Amino acid sequence: MEHFFKTILRQSYRNWKKFKKESPLIQSLIYSFDNKSSFEKIDQHERMLADTTRMDIYFRAISKYVREGDTVVDLGTGTGILAFFASQCNPKKVYAIDHGNVINYAKKVAEANNLQNIEFIQQHSGQFLPPEKVDVILHEQIGDFLINEDMIRNLLDLKKRLLKPGGIMLPSMFEMYFEPITMVQARNTPFLWEHNFNGIDFSPTKALLNSEDSPLSKPEIYTYIQPGDAESFLAIPTPVAKFDIMQLEDDSFLKKLIFDQRIVKNGKLDGFALYFRIIFDEELLIDNSPFEKPTHWLPSIFRVEPVELKEGDVLQVNLNIPDPTIEESWNFNFERVRIEENSLLTEI
After folding, report:
1. Helices 52-65 and 42-50 meet at what angle, rounded to 10?
2. Is the CB of residue 254 less than 8 Å from the CB of residue 324?
3. 169 neighbors 139 (Cβ within 8 angstroms)
4. Measured distance CA(221)–CA(330) in Å, rounded
5. Of 70, 95, 227, 234, which sits most exposed with the smallest number of CB within 10 A?
6. DSSP secondary structure string for all residues of 165-224
7. Over the stretch 177-229, which tens digit does the pLDDT of each residue have?
8. φ, ψ of residue 262 in degrees (nearest 5)
């Protein structure tokens, strides 16, 4: 009887996962709920405010581009810090929008600092419609995977409905990287089946963990890279996607990214590092590469079973992003091609 109920529960769970995966409406509702719940935790906001790189670059960018008399929207204002920076530039008005309860704390801070040109609005940005078009849209809807907080869809909606001709968005330019990387051996996290301790071989767990009948969750395809975890890139970093939201109509170009990476040094491939650059202009940018100053955005490693690579190898990579807001849906595959000197294949 116990086995029967376990079977029923397991099948129900599989059906729910399939339904969730195939229903955009359900996915959207789940993401909206999860996102709101996540940012109800004050520690999230504390980490963002403690990120000195983030705070400094945003302050400098807002001071540089928000002008006296502007009308400004701060999308996802949170504790209100970007709205406060904008307020100091003497704009006509700042609309600070957030669908979470944290906005009540932002109001208190504004009152205490006598910032009177900010209107706080607690609602989803898709429902917001001010009486006039705006000059500047501020935002920091940037996740650890760059686009996994529904950034592009929300910003395209606001750009289309609210932004004046000639208006600006801060930031609007981004680069995404997916680089072959070697990790510091003592800081790397192999898959369970790769372990072998004093002759105890865990390789039999591979088939079970990757089967539909596994009683445990499948291995995470990615883990976060903490400071000191990474040893080196194996290729020269090159963005696999580079875009300006002011020039976009949709995010379809990101659904399937196909690219080559030429290996420039011998080494062990432990996975691919996902990181990004936020570009305000040539001087003001944020880079969360594992080899840059750490920010609250952690880079990730999309793990592979180790592969020894040699200088001159080329990796042909497919990165698929069916739904940016569901990190578990991100997947990839790659093939190694050996390029010989004087071969016609060097044109690949």
Report:
1. 70
2. yes
3. yes
4. 9
5. 227
6. EEEEEES-EEEEEEEEEEE-GGG----GGG-EETTEE-TTHHHHHTSTT-SSPPPPSEEE
7. 999 999 999 999 999 999 999 999 999 999 988 888 778 788 889 999 999 99
8. -90, 125
| Placement of tokens 């300006």 in the chain | 244
Residue 70: closest CA among 98, 38, 95, 43: 95
CA 144, CA 77: separation in Å to the nearest integer? 18
CA dist 124 and 127 (Å) reads: 6
| Tokens encoding 154 | 């929300």
Two tokens, residue 307: 């592969």
Mean pLDDT over each residue of the chain, to the nearest integer: 89
State the pLDDT confidence band at 6, using cuts at 50, 70 and 90: very low
Identity at 103, one-letter amino acid code = I
3-state secondary structure of 43: helix
> pTM surpassing 0.90?
no
Q: Crossing angle, helix 24-38 and helix 2-22, to 10 degrees?
A: 100
Helix and strand numbers (H, E) in the chain are 8, 17
- CA 242 – CA 253 distance, rounded (Å): 10
d(CA 39, CA 42): 7
